Amino acid sequence: MKTLITIIILALLVWGGYTLINRDGAEMTPTNNEAITTPTPTPTPSPVSSTPTIREIAVTGSNFAFSTSTIRVKRGDTVRIVFKSQGTHDWVIDEFNKRTKVLSAGQSETIEFVADKTGSFEYYCSVGTHRQMGMKGTLIVE
Ligand SMILES: [Cu+2]
Question: Taking the model in full, what pTM does it have?
Fold first, then answer.
């Protein structure tokens, strides 16, 4: 009889311990699920922003204005400026360290950069006082 009681007690201990482990396991499972479900929405917008999109914008510089005063792109876009000069002008954007050469009337130059930060950035012509005379515009990166 003593062995039977011992077996029953052992069995109860094992069962009890098993139940406790299972409970711990049951508590762990939802947190694991949360950890899996939380990052799921995050990758959804990233492929959208990382999709390489080239935005080609034709800008003509005349005395003393750019044909395009606002350029709107999305962050991550590659901005391609096709600049055509109708005088002695250039196209400069300091925040992205990009500029064309100073072009003479009739010349054109294409420059490209990745709009890797959001905000409003002024582009301008650096020749003489053209910027002060209104040869400027805004690049908006959303
Ligand atoms: Cu100019």
Answer: 0.65
d(CA 70, ligand 1 centre) in Å = 17
Q: What is the pLDDT of residues 91-139, one digit of tens each?
A: 999 999 999 999 999 999 999 999 999 999 999 999 999 999 999 999 9
Both structure tokens of 16 = 């009890």
Distance 35 CA to ligand 1 centre (A): 55
Tell me, in angstroms, the distance from the centre of ligand 1 to residue 54's CA.
26
Architecture of domain 48-141: Sandwich (2.60)
| Letter string b/e over residues 113-128, b meaning 16 or more CB atoms within 10 A of that residue's CB | bebeeeeebebbbebe
How many C-beta neighbours within 10 Å does residue 139 have?
A: 22
Q: What separation in Å is there between the alpha carbon of 27 and the centre of ligand 1?
A: 68
**Domains in the chain: boundaries:** 1-40, 48-141
Count how many Cα atoms sit within 13 Å of the Cα of residue 1 in the half-sphere of its side chain: 0
